[in-house]
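Quarterly update, task 2.4: pyridoxal-5'-phosphate-bound model.
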Amino acid sequence: MSDAAENGIQARIRAMDERVQGLRDNDMYFYNKPVSELKGSAEVVIDGRTMLMLASYGYLGLLGHARINAAAAGALQKYGSGTHGVRLLAGTLDLHLELERTIAEFKHSEDAVTFSSGYVTNLAAISSMVGRHDVVFCDKYDHASIVDGCLLSGAEMKRFRHNDMEHLETLLRRYADRSTKLVVVDAVFSMDGDIIDLPRTAELCQKYGAQLMMDEAHSVGVLGESGHGVEEHFGMQDCVDVKMGTLSKTIPSVGGYIAGSRGLINLMKHAARGFIFSAAIPPAQAAAAKVAFEVILDEPARVGRVQRNAAQFMDGLKRAGFDTMQSETAIVPVLCGSDEKAYELVRLCQREDIFVLPVVSPAVPEGMARLRATVTAGHSAAQIERALDVLQKAGKQVGLI
Ligand SMILES: *Cc1c(COP(=O)(O)O)cnc(C)c1O
C-alpha cells in the first residue's frame, strides 16, 4: 500500500473490517457459518454440533429429497455440470424448457422464463418492463432485489407505507396520467412474515391501469391449500400480471422465474439483460427444480404440515408472551427491540443447539431488532416444542417475557 491518504475503497474495507471484528470480539457475529452435513429434514451440523435448523427457507423440507436428488444426479450424468453459455445462444437445454413449462402450469400462466437467480430475475424483469418516463410503485418493505431492479430501470420510483393501501391509492391517483405504471410487491414480506393485501392491491391496479408484479419467494409452497401461493390463498385468479419467484427456497435449487403471458415471456427472453448476458441454470439444478414442483403436487400433505407447524410455533410463542408482530406465515419474527437483546436471545438459543438468527438495523428499523425463525414441513411437533422451551427460557433470561 502506498503512503498516500486512504482512498474511499480502502476506507470502506477498513470500516467493514473493524465492524465485523468488533462483532466477533463481542460474540455477536452469527453470519456465514458453514453447514457441514444435513441430518434428516430439520437438523444440520454446524461447528461439529447437530442443531435444529430454524432459519431455513426450505419451507416444505425438500432439501435432500431422494427423488429430487436423483433427478439432479441424472441430469449431471447426461448433460455435464454446466451449459454452453447463455440461454439466448447455446445455453438452452430441453431441460430448461421443461422446467419453464412446469412452472407455467404450476402458476396457471401461459408461459414462464427462468434466470440464474431470484435476485437477477427481479433486476432483469423490472428493468425490461419499465424505464425513464415510467413509474413504479413499491411497498416500503419490498425485498432489496426489487429496489435494485427499480433503480436499474431508471423509472421514477414511489414507495408506499407498508401494506398501506390508502397510501398506494394516493400515489396511483397522483400519477394517474402516466401511461406506464407498475406496482411491485412481495406476497409475503421476508422480514415480517405478513401477507400483502392482494385483493385491494389488485383492485387498485385495475382501477388505475397499473400492471401488478408479485414476488412469491416466501409464498410458494406456504400459502394456499395446495401451496400454489398468494392467489390461491385469497381465492383469486388472473389478477397478477407478472409472477416472480425463486428456485432457491421452497424449491431446493438455484435460479428465479417469471411466469405470465406469452408476450411478456417473449419480451423477457429477448430484452432482459439478466437473461441475455448471464449463464443458464446448470442442468442438475434445472432438473432438481422441475422435479421439486412435481413433488409439491405429488406430496400435498407437506403444505398442510408447514402451515400447522407455523401455527404451533406462533401460538406457543404468543402464549409465552412474545411479540410475533403481524406474521401469518412460516416466517416468524420474535420482536426484541434493541440489537443487543436480539443478539443475546440468539446466542442463548444457539447455545442450546437451536439455529436461529438475528435481524438488526439497518435491515429493519432501529428499535425493531428481532430474532427471526422459520418453520418448515420438515420439523416434527416435538422439535417445535423443544424450540419453544428453549426460547421461553432464553426470553426470560433476556427479560423479554
Ligand atoms: C430470496 C429472495 C429473492 C432472491 O432470490 P434468490 O434466488 O435468493 O436470488 C428475491 N425476493 C425475495 C422476496 C426473496 O426473499
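Highlight for this quarter: The radius of gyration is 22 Å.
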